Write the structure tokens for this entry.
Amino acid sequence: MAEPQHRIRARYTGSTVIVYQAYRPELGLPAARDGRFPPAWQRDRMTWIKPSFLWMMYRCGWGAKEGQETVLAVEITREGFEWALGRACLSHYERGLHPDRASWKRQLKRAPARVQWDPERDVRLLPLPHRALQLGLAGEAAQRYADEWTVSITDTTDLAHEIHRHVRDGDLDTARRLLPPERPYPVPDGLLDHLRR
């Protein structure tokens, strides 16, 4: 059966969900060590979280891009994740989903979170036909993320490098076996109706 175009896939438990971010070591290493973001982490900037490990690898180049050398798995509450999704606005205007461009712009300006659906990636980081969620958090959402929703922070840089090594060596089966297992996220009815057609 074909994968739905817009579906969240993630690692999750009954109460938490894993999202990924990549930072320079001066931010990422203290965050992983202390299990919370350090004072240098800017709560007044938009921060993007990604439930897809491979989309994060595409974005950070397996932890090799400058300023993204430390890959973090951030465990947050599902309650917080769903709070942000429920209050998010699509980052682009979508005819048929928004009444008109002006109302979308007003909604975007007010929303504490925004959503982008970007092509999911395979283990070689090539685009797949279905989409992966990116969730941008600003203002109240960013503060809640850092101060209330975060349960734990784990440095997964070594795993990223190990999987990348197998991909480079052409051992895609081993690379796939090492991937964090992601499955369809059980979205409450109606939660994503304003974010996908």
Notes: The first strand starts at residue 9 and ends at 10. Residues 157-168 form the longest helix (12 residues). DSSP finds seven helices and nine strands in the chain. The helical segments are 25-34, 53-60, 78-86, 101-110, 139-149, 157-168, 172-178.
